[in-house]
Design a protein that fits this description.
single chain, alpha+beta, six-stranded mixed β-barrel, two-stranded antiparallel ribbon, 17 helices, membrane, ABC transporter permease
């Protein structure tokens, strides 16, 4: 509906005036500089928010897929008596809906050595078929093969462990465990050499540098397990369905057991990631807020500079609403265009973040991403379009709010006073 005696809201006349106020003139150069800095600030703030949130999403999802994909989702541990009936337990659990597989596992710590050096490792004994069905391992074997795993004495190790020990497929890895055979003089360390059958690389330092997989029966013999296992790991179709899966497992497994799941084992780690993500969002939002405040100062100066023009417009019949909308359009245009530019910059940077990292690393001749420190072999980035929409809405909302007070000041300007002292 049109203002009384004025033009329709957001008419071409108002857009034309707003466009003229946005153009640079020599006399208004300082105002234009402030508007330019406001535009750049909003663009960089929005782009930085999108990039950081995408990297943190990718980091969390990559860690989740690797940690959960390697370790399972629900863990069945024995209570009171050893888990010697692990075959029956695994078969019963695998029959439940939503369960991909149940993997009986023997775990133990050992010292691994070669002719080069040595270090601590975590030995995991699994059935050969279970290891071949573990996609994180079987799909990432880059040297050797798992075809003969279980048919002969041999182990599969991570690429970083193989590199640190100087080992290749066919070489020998010596494992030393303090829990060996009992003698009249005490427990003697168990020392045994195993050939390397396969070397895998999942892209996560924790697994590539410390895990050694061996056949289940061999692990039981090595760690003096009397036909039992440490835990049965249950893999689900959807890792988020752990509560329903735990209830179903309790109903089907008729023996004393202790159940845990991946959310409990990694709760502190993923909680820390979530807290860091929220804090980063708040900190980076301040960049957009500062840019929005620049819009306020720029518009106030523009209103002061254009006070005589506003007075003439009012005397010619322009309403207060029309004047307010002109400056509203002027300020909001800076924020909206800056937000759209930030969206484009953030998405392009995120989609090419690995290539950009490689270019910068080549130019500076430095390692920008150390996988031994950051767990992952490369920078992960995953755009969540719902979050991007929230960032855009926040930036545009702040930009619009920033224009309200200067626009209101312009609309309240007294034409007589402006012409007298303008």
């Amino acid at each position: 509906m049109a203002d009384a005696g004025g033009t329709r809201p957001f008419s071409g006349f108002e857009w034309m005036l707003a466009g003229r106020y946005l153009r640079t003139r020599r006399r208004e150069g300082f105002v234009s500089v402030i508007a330019g800095f406001s535009f750049i600030g909003i663009m960089l703030g929005v782009a930085t928010l999108i990039i950081v949130l995408s990297v943190m999403n990718g980091f969390r999802n990559e860690l989740l897929s690797k940690i959960v994909g390697m370790n399972g989702h629900v863990f069945i541990a024995p209570i009171d008596m050893p888990l010697t009936d692990y075959v029956d337990v695994a078969n019963a659990v695998e029959g439940l809906p939503g369960v991909i597989r149940a993997v009986p596992t023997v775990e133990g710590q050992a010292f691994a050595s070669s002719t080069v050096q040595g270090g601590g490792v975590l030995v995991r004994g699994v059935r050969p078929d279970d290891l071949r069905r573990l996609d994180q391992i079987s799909r990432n074997v880059n040297q050797g093969s798992l075809d003969t795993f279980g048919e002969e004495e041999g182990v599969a190790i991570g690429a970083r462990l193989a590199s640190s020990l100087g080992l290749f497929p066919g070489d020998t890895l010596t494992l030393i465990s303090p829990r060996g055979a009992a003698t009249p003089f005490g427990t003697a360390p168990r020392i045994k050499a195993y050939p390397i059958l396969a070397i895998y690389e999942v892209g996560m330092t924790e697994f590539d540098a410390a895990f050694v997989y061996m056949p289940l029966e061999e692990a039981q013999a090595y760690f003096n397990r009397a036909g039992d296992v440490s835990v049965v790991e249950v893999f689900l179709d959807d890792p988020e369905d752990v509560l329903e899966a735990r209830t179903a497992i309790e109903d089907v497994v008729q023996r004393p057991m202790f159940l845990t799941d991946w959310t409990q084992r990694n709760s502190s780690f993923f909680s820390a990631l979530q807290v860091e993500r929220n804090v980063m969002f708040i900190i980076l939002t301040l960049i957009v807020l500062v840019a929005a405040l620049n819009i306020v100062s720029g518009l106030i100066m523009l209103v002061k500079d254009k006070s005589a023009d506003i007075a003439i417009l009012r005397t010619m019949g322009a309403t207060r609403g029309s004047v307010m909308r002109v400056f509203l359009i002027t300020g909001a245009s800076i924020g909206i265009v800056g937000t759209i530019a930030g969206l484009a910059l953030g998405v392009v940077f995120t989609l090419n973040i690995q290539a950009i990292q490689n270019i910068v690393a080549t130019i500076t001749n430095q390692t920008l991403w150390d996988p031994t420190v950051r767990f992952l072999s490369e920078i992960p980035a995953e755009i969540d379009w719902a979050e991007v929409g929230a960032v855009l809405g926040m930036a545009m909302g702040l930009s619009l709010l920033a224009t309200l007070y200067p626009s209101w000041r312009a609309a309240r300007l007294d034409p007589v006073e402006a012409l007298r002292y303008g």
